[in-house]
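Customer escalation, tier 2.

The customer says the design service returned an amino acid string that "doesn't look like it belongs to this structure." They asked us to rerun it and document both sides in this ticket. The original structure tokens are below, unchanged.
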């Protein structure tokens, strides 16, 4: 009997170490699998793509279009105008059209008739090429209207006030400073300029009154000195006019209304 029991216990002893070896091997495989899953992202199921990170995501901006979706705004074409609100709350300025484009049109010089800005200067009107007529006026009283008409074929400029003398006066009649126009009077062929003449005071306050039977008119040059073409004799309405020391003459005007407004 003792020999039979030793024979039966021998196989149990040999199977024990084998089972332990299998369990250790299985545990090692499980550990390797766990490490592999951890290296792949720690996902229990790496095929769940909805939870996986995209391979090449579009860049996302902190502000503006595409911040939530990852989309980028279309590039702005060069030279296009664009306005809108600035980040600081102001309004963006409109861009100019294209490179080298003018932001504003070019300025054109020149004013109206006789204007100063960009006006082309012409020769001073010559008394030999201008016909001057003295016309009587009912209103205002004691006034004459001088009409100077360009009879030449070239445009000319009328400067200052006419050099006007009644009779044998040694100096020209005084000019009226308040009548100086804003624009130079330019006469194209056939056009006329005008000057008003006060011959005597309406209330009789003038002194040294006399009757003049002749009148001469000269046209000043650009410098205001002398008379271009000399002095031209001008017929007086009715052949004579009463003159005192209150008399004056206006600057040349572009129309008769301005000449007789004084």
């Amino acid at each position: 009997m003792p020999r039979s029991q030793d024979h039966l216990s021998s196989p149990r002893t040999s199977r024990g170490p084998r089972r332990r070896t299998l369990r250790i091997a299985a545990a090692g495989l499980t550990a390797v699998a766990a490490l592999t899953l951890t290296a792949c992202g720690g996902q229990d199921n790496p095929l769940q793509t909805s939870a996986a990170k995209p391979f090449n995501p579009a860049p996302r901006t902190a502000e503006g279009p595409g911040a939530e979706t990852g989309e980028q705004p279309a590039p702005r074409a060069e030279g296009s105008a664009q306005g809108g609100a600035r980040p600081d709350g102001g309004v963006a300025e409109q861009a100019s059209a294209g490179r080298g484009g003018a932001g504003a049109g070019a300025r054109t010089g020149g004013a109206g008739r006789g204007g100063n800005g960009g006006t082309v200067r012409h020769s001073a009107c010559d008394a030999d090429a201008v016909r001057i007529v003295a016309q009587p006026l009912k209103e205002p009283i004691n006034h004459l209207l001088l009409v100077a008409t360009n009879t030449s074929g070239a445009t000319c400029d009328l400067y200052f006030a006419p050099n006007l003398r009644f009779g044998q006066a040694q100096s020209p009649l005084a000019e009226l400073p308040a009548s100086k126009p804003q624009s130079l009077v330019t006469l194209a062929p056939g056009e006329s300029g005008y000057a008003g003449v006060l011959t005597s005071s309406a209330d009789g306050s003038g002194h040294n009154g006399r009757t003049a039977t002749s009148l001469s008119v000269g046209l000043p040059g650009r410098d205001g000195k002398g008379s271009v073409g000399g002095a031209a004799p001008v017929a007086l309405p009715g052949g004579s006019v009463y003159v005192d020391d209150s008399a004056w003459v206006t600057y040349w005007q572009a129309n008769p209304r301005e000449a007789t407004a004084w």
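Tier 2 assessment: The sequence is consistent with the input. The longest strand covers residues 143-150. The chain is about 15% helix and 20% strand. Sent an explanation to the customer and offered a walkthrough call.
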